[in-house]
Amino acid sequence: MRLQLGDFLNDICEGERIFIEYESTSHPELFLDGLVKWSNEEGIPLLIVDMLDTFHLFVQQLRFLGYGTHHLENLCVIKGGGKVELGEVIGRVRIMEEFYVQLKEYNDAVRLFFEKVKSDKAVIVFLGTEKFMYSFQESSYRVEEYFDKVVRRPLFKGNMIFVFALKGLMSAQVKALWYESSTRVLEINGRGDRFFIKKAPKLDHLGGVIEL
């Protein structure tokens, strides 16, 4: 099955988590660009959770490819570490060992976001989470603790969550847990214009291709 990006996104229900894995030579920023344009067209607010300046890298790559980025530069952003501020930073999450502190700071920032956009649903995009997890992914206990306390915990109703992650920075355990915790899994091809569906709630979508 071949799907256009808009058709794929329109099929996603509130409460789903979509995990997108990519390689260092591919172009996941093309999917992000299409996702932001779709959310604007649908009137759904979009929030970026930017770990360690990954959002900046995505935007820089789009500029290098000749894409306009104005629609990305005004997005609401929660910063987790890093030094480059891009978009409207509405909150910060400290990168630290105590996950409950990080979760509280994230919850506080997301509440501010929903108050600002005056909407009961949103698209939330996580960029660079694998960089944060890299520091403790050799500890099976810490990885399980992170998924139990942060990832699997229901945070806010009405969200569609997209998690972008670089393959080379994930351990086998981390990758397996993301697969398990997501309703859909996509894998990008080298050029970045096609995404292969590895997991989906609909059987006829499995093995399908999303074309940008």
Word description of this protein:
- Pfam families: DUF257 (PF03192).
- This is DUF257 domain-containing protein.
- It is a single chain.
- A 10-stranded mixed sheet has the order 1-10-9-8-2-7-6-3-4-5, sandwiched between helices.
- Helix 2 packs across helix 3 and helix 7 runs parallel beside helix 8.
- The chain is globular and about 45 Å long.
- The chain has one domain: Protein of unknown function DUF257 (Rossmann fold, 3-Layer(aba) Sandwich).
- By secondary structure, it is α/β, with parallel strands linked by helices.
- Helix content is 39%, strand content 25%.
- It contains 8 helices and 10 strands.
C-alpha end-to-end distance: 14 Å
The number of helical segments is 8
The CATH topology is given as Rossmann fold
Number of DSSP strand runs: 10
CATH superfamily: Protein of unknown function DUF257
Can you tell me the number of structural domains? Answer: 1
Give the strand line-up of the largest sheet: 1-10-9-8-2-7-6-3-4-5
CATH architecture: 3-Layer(aba) Sandwich
Helix content: 25-40%
The CATH top-level class label: Alpha Beta
Largest sheet: 10 strands, mixed
Radius of gyration, in angstroms, nearest whole number: 16 Å
> What fraction strand?
25-35%
Low-confidence stretches: none
Give me the secondary-structure category.
alpha/beta
Protein name: DUF257 domain-containing protein
InterPro entries: DUF257
Pfam family, one: DUF257
Organism: Thermococcus argininiproducens
